[in-house]
Amino acid sequence: MNVNKAIIVGRLTRNPESRTTPDGQTVCSFTVATTRAWKDASGVRQEKTEYHNIVTWGKLAELCQTYLIKGQMVFVEGRIETRSWEAPDGTKRTRTEIIAEDLQFGPKPKGLVVEEIPEEETPPEEEINVEEIPF
Fold this sequence. Notes:
There is one protein chain. By secondary structure, the chain is mostly beta strands. The chain has one domain (6-118): CATH 2.40.50.140. It has one helix at 58-67, and strands at 6-12, 17-20, 26-39, 45-57, 73-86, 92-105. The chain has a 5-stranded mixed β-barrel.
């Protein structure tokens, strides 16, 4: 049995960047930082931060581009993939990414003023007369 699953909870280090593939599919990428804290043998607090490259596709990518912002907490579940390519200078490059399959938006960073989106006006509901129902 093989399992390729990554689950992280962290904060966005930058606003998401999206683009469209030649066949019209939306792809969005961003980086999430996770920090691990511990006390060493002498009792001094230590921290280590890891940075995770996240890629989303399709409708999930559109949602990320619309609603995620730098500093926001996010829960990401997906699979790990490493891709390779040749850079313009001829060097071989590799990048390990988490291809998100599920994502939950966390709270926005404190102190951020988010412009509220006005709700569309809905027409008043008509009163239903029970005697007019055909059954």
